């Protein structure tokens, strides 16, 4: 392609696009990321930031493809945080060194057998009661607490760490792009941050646009069913009783609740709650889900005082490559949509490194040629949900 502007254009500045940008540049590609809203604005800033090692997907007490795909991820991310991995994440703080798992009295013996087995050795430790977080010290309701080999990241800081050093290669666009094939690459028509129409010639396009990948399916003549969404409605509890990063394990093979804690700009602690509560509540009204969340925490942690709390909910879809049965794909999904064009979904934030491996394995070698696009404005980083959501001031009962 005589007029190539860049080797690889990436569409979408969530974790998948930003991670891929870093990996491509390290590998010698010229790469440009185009974002049509704000960085992290899709699922990434709405995520809980847990770098899963897969045990959450083995709650039926069997290891499987989904848990295997994640098994190496904690070590890979920790290497990056230490500055010895594929992307330099030194300076990104851990929200929690280890994500926890608390077992209710009812099922403590079942989980103790699995967590004590050879299958999961090295991936989980039983904590002595003295090491349990204060909010879980309730021996009548909490039977055991385990620490998983999974850290929790501060996602807003992670996005800054990925975006800042690559600012010149990250560009704001308006609206959708139009992609057409060209000799040895693709032509991308779009509107830049000043709403000026632009034409870019790229050797390849990788779209990591989350739910936005769906608009490209039609352009490539692919069925809408090539992508899927799985809805959630997360619950946010402001002025939470104390720090907690944990799944609650009970009768189901999914965590009953998954709690992460986030500090708002004014310093107050927010519990951000997923798990079954958020799955079964996906289609409930916000009011009904908040009522259900209050009842859930009254049952799970009856000793805690939630009387000063404020609540909110966040409805958000998980956008993924499709599976036959609509369930979560076991790993990242990379789909070749046209010559030199790929649609990519990491499936989990934790799996962004694996998705980048898959993309790098598909691409032709870099040319390193890059046009000067310094005049295009860059996008902002989106605010985190707990700093931007409208709170309902609700009495506890
Ligand atoms: C509530 C929730 C909690 C989660 N918690 C975890 C967790 O704890 N751990 C974990 O591993 N995973 C978690 N996940 C999954 C994880 O968040 C996602 O797998 C991951 O963030 C997807 O990243 P992405 O970059 O593919 O997409 P997104 O984060 O959705 O980013 C897509 C980006 O593309 C942009 N975009 C869209 N259309 C266009 C377009 N046409 N042109 C240009 N840009 C476009 C969007 O503005 C956005 O910035 C969670 C998901 C949800 C919803």
Chain-wise SSE layout:
Blueprint: E1 6-11, H1 15-26, E2 31-35, H2 65-70, H3 73-82, E3 94-96, E4 100-104, H4 108-115, E5 124-126, E6 142-148, E7 152-153, H5 155-163, E8 170-182, E9 185-192, E10 197-207, H6 213-219, E11 227-238, E12 246-249, E13 257-263, E14 269-274, H7 276-280, H8 286-300, E15 310-321, E16 333-338, E17 341-345, H9 352-362, H10 385-388, E18 392-393
Helix pairs in contact: 1-9
The protein binds flavin-adenine dinucleotide.
CATH architecture of the largest domain: 3-Layer(bba) Sandwich
Biggest sheet overview: 9 strands, mixed
CATH topology of the largest domain: FAD/NAD(P)-binding domain
> Looking at this structure, what is the CATH superfamily of the largest domain?
FAD/NAD(P)-binding domain
β-strand percent reads 25-35%
Number of domains: 2
How many extended strands? 18
Please report the distance between the alpha carbons of the first and last residues.
Answer: 66 Å
Q: What is the CATH domain class of the largest domain?
A: Alpha Beta
Bound molecules: flavin-adenine dinucleotide
Query: Approximately how much helix is present in the residues?
Result: 10-25%
Shape: globular
> Structural class per helix/strand content?
alpha+beta
Order of helices and strands: EHEHHEEHEEEHEEEHEEEEHHEEEHHE
Query: Can you tell me the residue ranges where pLDDT is under 50 for at least 5 consecutive residues?
Result: none
Mean pLDDT over the full residue set: 92
Give me the side-by-side strand order of the main sheet.
5-6-4-12-13-14-11-15-18
